[in-house]
Amino acid sequence: MSSAPRERAAAWPAYAKASLACHLGAGVVAVAVPDAWPWAIGAVVANHVALTAGGLWPRSRWLGSNWTRLPAAAAARGEIAITIDDGPDPVVTPAVLDLLDRHDAKATFFCIGRHARAERELCREIVRRGHSVENHSDRHSHRFSLLGPRAMAGEIAAAQAALADITGEAPQFFRAPAGLRNPFLAPVLQRLDLQLVSWTRRGFDTVRRDPGPVLARLGRGLAAGDILLAHDGNAARTEAGSAVVLTVLPQLIDRIRAAGLTPVTLAAALHRDTLIEPAAPSAQARAEAHS
Ligand SMILES: [Zn+2]
What is the DSSP letter of 3? Predict the structure, then answer.
């Protein structure tokens, strides 16, 4: 499959240019107009507050390209993406896979590198069943958004190498742990050719034990192009002891179907337009098929 055109961050993302301009401008003002230095410092502080806020708001685009919905072409086809994070989990993931099969739905699994190495066969099974495995960092550190550029690159590259080795397919998408980022992330993703994805709505199914509100949140205003977030890893358990996602998914997929929408992987949503149709079988192949 050829590499599809996708929304890319420029070599210097806009936030980096604006931030650099802010620092240089503040420096020039502080030198040229000494009395104005408190204002210059204020501008630099405000710039840092804005960069931090941009990183702590998962759906923001201040720190570079970030999918919160599928591309317009996928939405026009009535596609929707179910994304399932933090696995693979030896108990929950197999049940999720069976459930997706029963409902003829495809999903995207944002896997943690460390979990994938512990569940290699399960990770391969996800791909065998027609779903896609994408990069959700190597250790899912809660300090991810505090990492410097080298440590952040190491986290993402380690998961990328592990997932590509296990499944035979290099991930094309990255989701930050808890969606939290910092300005070092965009250049790393650009270098590894990964598209950042957050979500349209999440159900908070790692903390909510009652499937009702999780389903209500995910299904609210369901529309073509939505990217929905649920969890097979770190999943909250219902009072009956099963992962919340297992109760929520069948009903969610029913609602998606009732709305006339089709659940597809992120990779399919991106590449469907660029897929090259297989060539028509040759006369010899047709003859062999009929012999
Ligand atoms: Zn996660």
Answer: P
Cα of 85 from ligand 1 centre, angstroms? 5
The sign one gets for the Cα dihedral 127, 132, 137, 142 is: negative
Q: How far is the CA of 231 from the centre of ligand 1 (A)?
A: 8
Ligand 1 centroid, distance to 83 Cα (angstroms): 11
pLDDT of res. 11:
58
**Residues whose CB falls within 8 Å of the CB of residue 123, separated by 6 or more in sequence, listed in order:** 88, 111, 116, 133, 163, 166, 167
Backbone angles phi, psi at 80, to 5 degrees: -145, 150
- Is 24 exposed, middle or buried (CB count within 10 Å of its CB: 0-12, 13-18, 19+)? exposed
Residue 177 C-alpha to ligand 1 middle, in angstroms?
A: 5
CA-CA distance, 107 to 233, in Å (whole number)? 15
- Please list the rounded mean pLDDT of every run of 10 residues in the chain (291 residues): 44 74 81 81 78 71 85 96 98 98 97 98 98 98 92 97 98 93 91 96 92 96 97 93 95 97 97 54 48 43
How many other CB atoms sit within 10 Å of the CB of residue 281? Answer: 11
> Token pair for residue 263?
């659940």
Asked whether 126 and 97 are in contact (CB, 8 A), the reply is: yes
Q: Could you give the angle at the alpha carbon of 16 between the alpha carbons of 11 and 20, nearest 5°?
A: 120
The confidence score (pLDDT) of residue 281 equals 46
Q: Are 51 and 63 in contact (CB under 8 A)?
A: yes
Written as one string, the DSSP assignment of 80-97 is: EEEEEES---TTHHHHHH
134 CA → ligand 1 middle, Å: 12
